[in-house]
């Protein structure tokens, strides 16, 4: 039934203007706005809708993962742009905030609405 539909994902934020600045300027994504909604235009024609929600509660899980060829370079660049990386008690991260304890190298951060995102090293 839905095998040929172009499904898309979405998530909420409490401030569309702050989200637009963060995703567009800080992360460098192509962002468009229409009817009070944002569309994040990701590589591979994978659009994501961002919608305002007055009683927004941040997701308690990672909503977007950004694979990169060099996680150290990506974390350094994001840090220069003011992004702070999360630290979790059960996952020991290095000084940069990168978890190197098994599995892919990964670092978590949040958008202005508190939603969790990650940057992770692409497999070699």
SSE blueprint:
Blueprint: E1 9-13, H1 16-26, E2 30-34, E3 37-42, E4 46-52, E5 62-68, H2 71-80, E6 106-110, E7 116-121
Parallel strand pairs: 1-4, 5-7
Antiparallel strand pairs: 2-3, 3-4, 6-7
Question: Concise description?
Answer:
This protein is of the alpha/beta class.
Explain what you see:
- The chain contains two helices and seven strands; from the N terminus they run βαββββαββ.
- The protein is of the alpha/beta class and 124 residues long.
- Strands 1-4-3-2 form a four-stranded mixed beta sheet, with helices on one face. Strands 5-7-6 form a three-stranded mixed beta sheet.
- The radius of gyration is 15 Å and the shape is globular.
- The protein starts with 8 loop residues before the first strand and ends with a strand.
Features:
Glyas_Bleomycin-R_OHBP_Dase; 17% helix; three-stranded mixed beta sheet; Glyas_Fos-R_dOase_dom; alpha/beta; VOC_core; Glyoxalase/bleomycin resistance protein/dioxygenase superfamily protein; 33% strand; four-stranded mixed beta sheet; 124 residues; globular
């Amino acid at each position: 039934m839905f095998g040929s539909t172009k499904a898309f994902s979405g998530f909420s934020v409490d401030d569309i203007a702050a989200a637009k600045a963060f995703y567009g300027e800080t992360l460098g994504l192509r962002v468009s706005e229409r009817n009070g909604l944002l569309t994040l235009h990701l590589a591979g024609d994978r659009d994501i809708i961002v919608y305002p929600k007055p009683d927004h509660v941040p997701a308690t899980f990672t909503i977007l993962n950004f694979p990169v060829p060099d996680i150290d370079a990506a974390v350094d660049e994001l840090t220069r742009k003011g992004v702070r990386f999360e630290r979790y008690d059960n996952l020991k991260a290095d000084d940069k905030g990168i978890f190197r304890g098994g599995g892919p190298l990964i670092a978590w951060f949040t958008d202005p609405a508190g939603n969790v995102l990650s940057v992770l090293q692409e497999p070699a």
